Each structure stands twice: as structure tokens, then as C-alpha cells.
Here is the input.
Amino acid sequence: MENPSSANNHPRPTSAPSDPPAPPSPPAYGAYQQPNVPYQQPGIIPPQPKRTLNRKVIIAIAAGAAVVLAAATVGLVLLFSPAADGGQAATTFYQALKDGDAKKALSVSDPGVPENEAVLLQDNIYKAAGQHIDGFRILESKGEYVRAEVTQNGRKQEDILMMTKSPDGEWKVGPKNFQKIRLSSNRPVKSFTVNGVDVAAPDSGSASPDSQLLLPAFPGEYKLGISGDKYATVEEKKALVSIDRRISDTFETLKVLPSQLLLDETKALLQKKRDTCIASASATARQSFSSGCSGFNLYESRPTQNVKWTIDEEPTFTLSLSRDIWYIQPEGKGKATVSYEVNRGTEAAPKWEPHSEVMEPRISGEIHIVDGKATLKDY
Here is the structure.
């Protein structure tokens, strides 16, 4: 039997000595390894040395920033500082006139009149005007004076604008540059028309024999007329506002004429009166005048009877206006045949003889407008 202690007396196996450290793994294929530098594990960025900016570079950057800041400052000053002269406002004004843009032109100008007197400076009137300026060239801009070469209707003319400056430094084309159209009529009218747009005529009072307007306008050609009266019209006229004031034609008087409606209604009234006179067939001149048929009398001194009129050719007429009355003026002679019996005897012993003659029926009278309707008053 073995001694238990002998088992413990067996020599214990000595532990194997520890392995030496493994050499570093070679770098991965394709990885870059700086020479003379300890190997770094892939994916690990080696510490970089701090670099200091060169003083010249710092100075250059600072100088560049200063230049940019200075340029921005100059731009802001130019943007918000008032202009030294009226050149820019004049350029905007001329370009707007060329484009027919009255609203733009008015935004850089001051016509010097209340808003209700600036009606010809509206877009709806100026766009329809003829002979806008064709082009322009600023020759000189000095303070409140701007000198330019302007072309209108193919004609070149030097133009000098007198500018005004507001307290906040805003330049505008002044009122002395505006020409005015003077428009009148030979009788009171309710309204004028300029390029087809109604322009109310001032109320001159019932005693005034005419109507007048005096309004500023941009350079151009304007068609003039009247409106508001169905019984009146005018021959259309034109006013010219030219850059060359020597050829401007801005004073126009419109002669009021009867409208075709009034001529037609007058003709109908005369025909109705003529038919009445023919039907009554007054026997004497006195009766003709008293019945309002002065155009149908025989001028026969002896008694007549059985008078009959036949119109062979209608007479023509015109209407002439004085105040509010249209006077009938004979124009073309008409022709009528009248047959009647004349007493060649005495009243106690009458002797009636037939008679016939060709006459020129006379038309005359006045046309009055009563409650908006034409009425005839015979002489």
C-alpha cells in the first residue's frame, strides 16, 4: 500500500515559460506607412503638428475683408444717399414718355396742379395719344437743369428740363416744363372728350356763352370732342403738345354742330307741320301766318278758295345755334305746285277762276330743347 504522502512527494511539473511578444503584424496590403515612423494601426490618424498662419497671410485676409466692407458701405451710401442732380429722374421721365406710361412719368414729375386738373395726365388718355417721343439722349445734367436731345415724330429738338428738389432730396420734373391744352366750345357743353375719354366741363353758369378747359398734358397729339348731348356734335379737332414749343398747337375752339339725330327730328317736325298746313289750306296770307304756316301762303290779294298744295321737291335746311336755340336756315330751294280758285268778280257777284302756279315753299322756325326733347316753333 502506497504511502499517501509519497504521492505528494512526486515532483510537480514546472510551468512552461511565457511566450515572447509577437512581432507586429505587417501593414495591410496597400496601406501607406511613413518611413522612420512607428507603425500605426489602420484607421488611426496620427497626431498632426499644429501649424501657425503666416503673418503675411493674416494681413492679406484682413485687407481683403476691409476692401469688401468698404465696397458694401459705398454701395449702401449710393443706394440711400440723395442724387446730386436730377439726371436719373429726367431719364425715368423721358423713358416713361417714350413708353406711353403716364403713371410712371407722373411719379417723377410735379405738374403743379390739383389732382382734379391732372386728368389729361392719366394712362387711359395718354396711351391713346399719338406722336409720343421716339427717343432721347441726356446731354448734360447739372443741379436743377437737365439738357437732352429728344426726338418726336422724327424731329430732333434740344430740350431743357427744370427740376425741383424736395426737402428729403427727391428730384422731380418741375411744373414749368408742362404745356397746357386750352379747350373751349362756342356754347356750353356738359363734357369734352380727349382721346375718347370724357372730361367734365367746368360749370360756367347759365349766363356763360361757352365752356373752357385749361389742363396740363404730356407731349403728344390729342383728339378733341364733346359728349353728354345727344343733339350736339363737333368736327373733331386735334391738339399737339410738342417738345418744340414753336410748333405746339394747344389752343382749340370747338364749334358745336347739330347731331344727325337733331337734323332727323327737325325734318320730321317740319314735315308734320307742312302736312297740317296743306290740310288746312289757308286761303289768305294772313291766315297762313296766324296758323303758323308762313311757308305756305299765296300772296294773293283777291279772295281764294279750294287751295291745294303738292310738294314736288323737298327743301333742305341747316341749323344754326345761338345760346340754347337752334335756328332753321333754308339751304336748298324746294318746289311746290299750288292750285286754287281766285275771285275775279266782286263779293256780291263772285267770279271764281281756276289758277295754278309753281312756288318755292319756305321753311323757317326755331328748335327748342324742352325737357330733353326737340320742339318746333314756327314764325
Remarks:
- The radius of gyration is 52 Å.
- Residues 182 and 251 are 5 Å apart (CA to CA).
- Residues 1-17, 28-32, 72-81 have pLDDT under 50 and may be disordered.
